[in-house]
Design brief:
Blueprint: H1 2-14, H2 30-34, H3 48-64, H4 69-80, E1 91-95, H5 100-117, E2 120-123, H6 165-170, E3 197-201, H7 214-220, E4 225-229, H8 242-251, H9 258-266, H10 271-285, E5 290-296, H11 306-319, E6 327-328, E7 337-338, E8 344-345, E9 351-357, H12 361-372, E10 374-375, E11 382-385, H13 398-412, E12 416-420, H14 424-433, E13 438-440, E14 453-455, E15 471-472, E16 475-476, H15 480-485, E17 487-489, E18 497-499
Parallel strand pairs: 1-2, 1-4, 3-4, 5-9, 5-12, 9-11, 12-13
Antiparallel strand pairs: 6-10, 7-8, 13-14, 15-16, 17-18
Helix pairs in contact: 5-9, 5-14, 9-14, 10-13, 13-14
This protein binds guanosine-5'-diphosphate (GDP).
Residues 98-102, 297, 356-358, 388, 390, 393, 395, 400-401, 403-404, 407, 423-425 line the site of guanosine-5'-diphosphate.
Length: 500
C-alpha cells in the first residue's frame, strides 16, 4: 500500500539509497538516521558495485573485528614478528595525525584502501577523539583495543620511524624485485620472512611514497598488519595504480563522488556532537530560506590582516555572482515586505550566513554589514551566525574537537559554500555537503591574491602532497598522463591534485 511504500521510500532515503546498512540502533547514533533530513544536496547515488562491496566489507569486519577468534589469532601472529600466508584476516590500523579535517580525510582514504585490498580498518582513537564519531559498521567495532595491542608507543611514532616502509626497504627487511629497492623494473616479490607489520607514513612528509606503486602494493599485500600514518586525502594517488583502476571505476562511476560517498558512509557524529549540530541548526539556520556557509581559515604561513581578508571575501562574492547578498546604501530602495504580524521577507526569501572560523572578526564585520544596510534587490533578511571562535586550534581537547566537528556538519547543511584554500576542514564540509565550493585563494608569502577565489571543478578534496619524485616500474608515480586521465591540478594549490 501507499503508506508502507512511503515509509519504505523514506527508509531508503535516510540510508542514502542503501549506502548505509539498515538495522543499526537509531538512538545510539542519531546522526546516522537523521543527517539526510538536513543535507540540501544528493548529487550521487551509490553504484550497485559499491553497495555490494560495502556489505561484503561489513561481513568481513564482523568476522575479523576485535573480540572475534580470528582477531585474537591475528594479534598472536602480530606478536610473532612475521606475517604468514593464508591468514583469513588482514588489517590497516589508522593513526591520528593533525587536525580533525586531516583526520577524517585520512580515515576515508584508509577505508577505501581497505575496500580495495580486502583489509579491515581499525582506528586507534586517542582520548581527544573518544566521543566524536559513532561506530560505522553494524554488529562490530572499529576501535582498536589499545590496551593489548602489541606495538608500543602507537601515538608517538612520527613520520619516519625504523618500522616505516622505506626504512624496511633500505634495511632489506622487505624485498621488492629481488632485493634492490632501486631496481623495481618488473613484478615484485617479497622474500620471506615478511615482517608482521609495516608502518606506512603517507603524511605531508611523504616518507613512504613508493606505497603508491603497483609493485610495492604486491609486496605490501603479503603483510598482515599495516599501520597508517597520514594527514592526507590520498585517494587521487590510488587511481594511477594499475591494479586498482578497474575496481575504482566500478566503485565510483563518477570520480567526483568518491569522498562524498565515503564520508557519508563512514563518518557519523556521536550523539553529543549531534546535539550541538541540531540545536544550533534549528535555533539559527532553519528559519532562513537559504543557508550560505563561509569557512575562513588563517594559516600562519599565509596570514594577512583582517581587513584584507574581509575585502577578499567580498570581492570573491561579487566575482561569483553575489554569493553573499549585496547591500544597498539607499534605505528607500529596500523591497522587503513586512506583514502585520511583523514577519516578512524579500522577493528572494531570507538568508542565513554561517561563519566558521577560529576568530570573531569576520562575523563582526558581516553582521554589521547587514545590520547597517539592507540587502539589495529584494535580497530579504540576512542573518549572520557563528557558533564558536576559540581563537586557537586545540586538537588535544575533546570539547574543542566536538565543536569543530559540529561546525563541519553545520557547514555541510548549506546550499552554497565559500571555503578557504588548503584547508581540509573546508574540504570535508564541501564533500559532505555534495557542493562544489568557491575556494578563497591562499595569500602565499602573505600577499593578497589577485584573484580572490575560484569555483572548484569538483567537490573532491585536494591531495596536497601527491608522491612526486617517486619512480614506479621506471615511471613517475605522478606523471602527465595520469594527470590528464585521473586528476587535475587543484584550484588552490599547484602542487596538489584532485579527482574531478
Ligand atoms: P586544516 O588545518 O584547515 O586543514 O583543518 P583541520 O581540521 O585538520 O585542522 C584545523 C583545526 O583547527 C580544526 O580541527 C579545529 O580544531 C580548529 N579549527 C580551525 N578552523 C575552525 C573553525 O572554523 N571552527 C572550529 N570550531 N575549529 C576550527
Amino acid at each position: 500500500n501507499a503508506g508502507s511504500n512511503a515509509t519504505k521510500g523514506r527508509a531508503a532515503d535516510e540510508l542514502f539509497g542503501g549506502l548505509l546498512a539498515p538495522g543499526m540502533d537509531r538512538w545510539s547514533c542519531r546522526s546516522r538516521y537523521q543527517s539526510s533530513w538536513y543535507y540540501k544536496h544528493f548529487p550521487y547515488t551509490p553504484s550497485p558495485h559499491l553497495l555490494r562491496k560495502l556489505r561484503t566489507y561489513e561481513a568481513r569486519h564482523r568476522r575479523c573485528g576485535p573480540g572475534t577468534p580470528l582477531y585474537a589469532k591475528s594479534v598472536e601472529q602480530l606478536k610473532s614478528g612475521r606475517s604468514v600466508e593464508g591468514m583469513e584476516c588482514s588489517y590497516i590500523v589508522w593513526l591520528p595525525f593533525e587536525g580533525l579535517g586531516n583526520r577524517m580525510l585520512s580515515m576515508v582514504s584508509g577505508f577505501l584502501y581497505a575496500l580495495l585490498t580486502d583489509r579491515v580498518l581499525l582506528v586507534a582513537m586517542p582520548p581527544d577523539s573518544a566521543d566524536l564519531f559513532c561506530e560505522p559498521f553494524p554488529g562490530t567495532t572499529w576501535l582498536l583495543p589499545l590496551e593489548d595491542f602489541p606495538v608500543a608507543n602507537l601515538f608517538g611514532l612520527g613520520p619516519s620511524p625504523d618500522i616505516s616502509y622505506t626504512s624496511l626497504l633500505n634495511n632489506k627487511k622487505i624485498v621488492v624485485d629481488g632485493g634492490d629497492p632501486a631496481n623495481n623494473a618488473t613484478a615484485a616479490v617479497a622474500a620471506p620472512p615478511v615482517p608482521s607489520y609495516v608502518y606506512v607514513s603517507l603524511g605531508w612528509q611523504m616518507t613512504d611514497g613508493p606505497f603508491f606503486c603497483g609493485e610495492h602494493q604486491l609486496a605490501l599485500g603479503q603483510v598482515n598488519w599495516l599501520l597508517l600514518y597520514s594527514d592526507l586525502y590520498f585517494v587521487p594517488s590510488l587511481y594511477p595504480i594499475a591494479e586498482f583502476q578497474d575496481e575504482l571505476r566500478r566503485l565510483f562511476p563518477s570520480k567526483e563522488s568518491a569522498s562524498h560517498l565515503l564520508l557519508r558512509y563512514l563518518i557519523h557524529p556521536a550523539n553529543t556532537v549531534w546535539g550541538l549540530v541540531t540545536r544550533y541548526y534549528h535555533s539559527y539556520l532553519a528559519p532562513a530560506t537559504k543557508r550560505i556557509g563561509v569557512q575562513i581559515r588563517m594559516f600562519g604561513h599565509s596570514s594577512i590582516p583582517v581587513d584584507d581578508m574581509y575585502n577578499q571575501i567580498l570581492a570573491c562574492s561579487r566575482q561569483e555572482h553575489n554569493i553573499l547578498p549585496e547591500t544597498d546604501d539607499d534605505e528607500a530602495a529596500t523591497t522587503v515586505t513586512v506583514t502585520s504580524d511583523g514577519g516578512g521577507s524579500g522577493n528572494n526569501g531570507s538568508t542565513a550566513i554561517l561563519i566558521a572560523s577560529l576568530y570573531g572578526d569576520y562575523y563582526e564585520r558581516l553582521r554589521s554589514r547587514y545590520y547597517e544596510h539592507a540587502a539589495k534587490d529584494g535580497g530579504g533578511w540576512v542573518g549572520v551566525f557563528q557558533p564558536t571562535h576559540d581563537e586557537r586550534q586545540a586538537t588535544e581537547n575533546l570539547a574543542h574537537n566536538q565543536k569543530a566537528l559540529a561546525e563541519i556538519y553545520l557547514l555541510s547543511f548549506s546550499e552554497e559554500l565559500m571555503t578557504s584554500g588548503l584547508s581540509t576542514f573546508g574540504y570535508v564540509s564541501s564533500s559532505l555537503a555534495g557542493v562544489r565550493p568557491t575556494i578563497l585563494l591562499t595569500a602565499f608569502d602573505h600577499k593578497v591574491p589577485e584573484t580572490p577565489c575560484r569555483r572548484a571543478v569538483s567537490m573532491e578534496p585536494c591531495n596536497l602532497t601527491p608522491p612526486r619524485g617517486v619512480e614506479c616500474r621506471g615511471k613517475a608515480a605522478v606523471d602527465g598522463e595520469d594527470l590528464a586521465a585521473h586528476v587535475e591540478v587543484c584550484e588552490d594549490f599547484h602542487d596538489g591534485v584532485k579527482l574531478f
